[in-house]
Amino acid sequence: MAYIICEPCIGVKDKACVEICPVDCIYEGSKPGFPDMLFIHPDECIDCGVCQPECPVNAIFPEDDVPEEWKDYIRINKEFFE
After folding, report:
1. Residue 60: its pLDDT value, please?
2. Backbone angles phi and psi of 72, in degrees to 5
3. Which of 80, 68, 82 is CA-nearest to residue 35?
4. How far is CA 10 from the centre of its chain?
5. Which of 49, 57, 61, 78 would staple 8 via disulfide (CB 3.0–4.6 Å)?
6. pTM for the whole thing?
7. Cβ(4)–Cβ(77) under 8 Å?
8. Are 38 and 17 in contact (CB under 8 A)?
9. Residue 68: left if φ>0, alpha if ψ -120 to 50, beta else—which one?
10. Distance between CA atoms of 54 and 39, rounded to whole angstroms?
11. Cβ contacts of residue 30 below 8 Å, gap of 6+?
C-alpha cells in the first residue's frame, strides 16, 4: 500500500514532502494530461508515512484512507507512472 497525493496539492506543490522522503519516491507532475501536482511512485514508496504530516494542505493519505471524494486520485496516481 502506497501513499496517495490528492486534489489539495494541485497548483500548490509545496515540496516539503519531497525534501523529507527517505527514498525519493515523490515526483513533480510534468506529464501532459495530468494535474499540476506531485505524485508518489507506488512501487518505490516504503509506506513510512513521514511525508503525510509535512504536507501543509493535507493532501497525502495512505491508499486505504483516501477520502471518498478523492478516490479517483488512486487511479490517476497509478496511471501517471504507467
Report:
1. 98
2. -65, -20
3. 80
4. 10
5. 57
6. 0.94
7. yes
8. yes
9. alpha
10. 15
11. none
The span from the CA of 21 to the CA of 31, in Å, is: 21
Integer Cα distance of 82 and 42 in angstroms: 11
- The pLDDT value recorded for residue 30 is 83
Cβ atoms of residues 55 and 71 within 8 Å = no
Residue 40 main-chain phi, psi, to 5 deg: -100, 125
Taking the C-alpha atoms of residue 23 and residue 45, their distance in angstroms, rounded to an integer, is 7
Residues in the chain, pLDDT under 50: none
Cell of 52: 503525510
Q: What are the Cα distances from residue 6, in Å, to 25, 61?
A: 16, 8
What pLDDT does residue 67 have? 98
Report helix, strand or coil for 62.
strand
Sign of CA dihedral 24, 19, 38, 22: positive
